[in-house]
Amino acid sequence: MASRTWHFLLALSLLSSAAYGQLSPSFYATSCPLLELTVRATMIAALLAERRMGASLLRLHFHDCFVQGCDGSILLDDVGSFVGEKTAFPNVNSVRGYEVIDRIKATVELVCPGVVSCADIVALAARDGTFLLGGPSWAVPLGRRDSTTASLAEANADLPGPTLNLDQLIRAFDKKQLTPRDLTALSGAHTIGFSQCQFFRDHIYNGTNIDPAFAALRRQTCPAAAPAGDANLAPFDAQTQLVFDNAYYRNLVAQRGLLHSDQELFNGGSQDALVRQYGSNPALFAADFVTAMIKMGNIAPLTGASGQIRRNCRVVNS
Ligand code: HEM
Ligand SMILES: *[C@@H]1O[C@H](CO)[C@@H](O)[C@H](O)[C@H]1NC(C)=O
Fold first, then answer.
1. Domains in the chain, please, with CATH?
2. Ligand closest in space to the Cα of 163
3. Which residues are Ca(2+) 2-binding (predicted)?
4. 0.70 surpassed by pTM
């Protein structure tokens, strides 16, 4: 009796102390053994067509997880009276890759219909995008289910913007139980991809912590007077723009952060030392990035009987 109780308690504590909550990398091992191969193959095709898509899908996962948790809520279209997150300021005309998620979902539905959530597909696509652009790989904890709701208000409130200062960034991540170290590691995602001029204009014209030569270079394709050139793109990392490396941090040390929020991580504050470390130690960055991605991927997932497995990632099952 006592021993049975003890075993029960041990099992309970093992379950609840598992590093990734209720998610597990082997969640679909029997129900969809070809899942990861299917996602990978579709991602390779997508990146062959457009290499930037690896960056775009990494960002999509971030924007999913910071709003209601990693539940695929960002994928829901506005239809009829339903208002989703796609028109929120941080997402509209900015988040990309919805069609690639549709393609992966369609392919996965062919292999194992009705089994795999859109939220898990987004998490796998983010991992594959990172890896296929030369970054680290990791086993993605799986078993998320899809939301039946979305929140435009939470997307506007909780997704950090490029004008935030370090305190505000730390608070935005703390709200999702992510540490300042997670913030600095995850921001390394800005080693790949691009930003529109409208998000860094103020920084390159009015910023005080910016290399003058870098500011002059970026002004060439980002005119001062909005809305001219608002959507013009500049790479976050000019030298290796679609290679997932640690150059982002060396750029910050050289005052060549593209966004004001990027440069806030190296501006005489609490993250300076870590930025220098990541810039000189790629293995440390890779390890911390993986740890932080797994933490971010574990924000408030729907599991068990909560939510649903959407048939179409854009609409709630009827
Ligand atoms: C720390 C706060 C963050 C802020 C303020 C921020 C802001 C931005 C902005 C303004 C853009 C450009 C969007 C556009 O031009 O349409 C961008 C792009 C991007 N962000 Fe972030 N971001 C943050 C954190 C993250 C995190 C945590 C990740 C992923 C782990 C991430 C991944 C990316 C990627 C990969 C791109 C390039 C996307 C592409 O080229 O399509 N960002 N971010
Ligand atoms: C620079 O800052 C001033 C004062 O806040 C503002 O009026 C102006 O629009 C800013 N310039 C750019 C290019 O963002």
1. 2-159 (1.10.520.10), 166-289 (1.10.420.10)
2. 1
3. 191, 237, 240, 245
4. yes
